[in-house]
Amino acid sequence: MSDYTQIVADGLPLLSALPVEHLFDMRVDLEPVQFIPTPVGTRMTFVTTGGAVDGPRLRGVLRPGGGDWVTLGADGIGRADVRATIATHDGVLIHLEARGVIAVPSDGLARLADGEALPFAQTYVRTTPRFETSDERYEWLTGVTAVAYNALLPDRVDYRVYRVL
After folding, report:
1. 59 and 86 in contact (C-beta within 8 Å)?
2. Are 157 and 68 in contact (CB under 8 A)?
3. pLDDT in tens, 78-129
4. Would you say residue 39 has pLDDT above 90?
5. Secondary structure of 39-77 as H, E, C letters
6. In order of start, what are the domains of the chain with their CATH numbers?
7. Phi then psi for 35, rounded to 5 degrees?
8. SS in 3 state form for 96-163?
9. Sign for the pseudo-dihedral over CA of 135, 136, 141, 143
10. CB atoms < 10 A from the CB of 124, how many?
11. Scanning 8, 62, 72, 95, which has its CA 20 to 30 A from the CA of 51?
């Protein structure tokens, strides 16, 4: 047994599920996608037009002007780079960044273009949001490891965001 395996075996339980706390749900409203073919893959740019944040730990809106930049590789996997500003219900601005992966059925992009939502069971869209603010009421967010699962709709992305405990 390697030293690392022994340390893990001695000190950490093997988990079948991560303990999490639901922080909030987020709806990100988007302009129509801009497809940009490049040597590294197809870039898809989605500009944020607004949205809503609602949950037990955070409430507010998304300000227009953020975006979701996805690079679709030759392997069919999309790699997401998301930036947005949350304006909380009590006037605080929070910077949000998320990275993640997107896997949809081979006809998924065409179905979205035709106005169809992709059912959660047919996609794998997972992100890792990070937050920045210096406001003392929400500063706790800057030290959170968060995970989200997402649903894709023709004109928006929905997030369910959890803090890993």
Report:
1. no
2. yes
3. 999 999 999 999 999 999 999 999 999 989 988 988 999 998 889 999 999 9
4. yes
5. CCEEEEEEEEEEEEEECCCCCEEECCCCEEEEEECCCCC
6. 16-164 (2.40.160.20)
7. -90, 130
8. EEEEEEEECCCCHHHHHHCCCCECHHHCEEEEEEEEECCCCCCHHHHHCCEEEEEEEECCEEEEEEEE
9. positive
10. 15
11. 72
pTM of the full structure: 0.89
Provide the token pair at 128: 């890792």
| Tokens 């997972």 sit on residue | 126
Which tokens belong to 78?
A: 């999309």
Residue type, 97: E
**Is there a contact between 146 and 164 (Cβ–Cβ < 8 Å)?**
yes
- Which amino acid, 80? A
Task: Say which amino acid occupies 23.
Answer: L
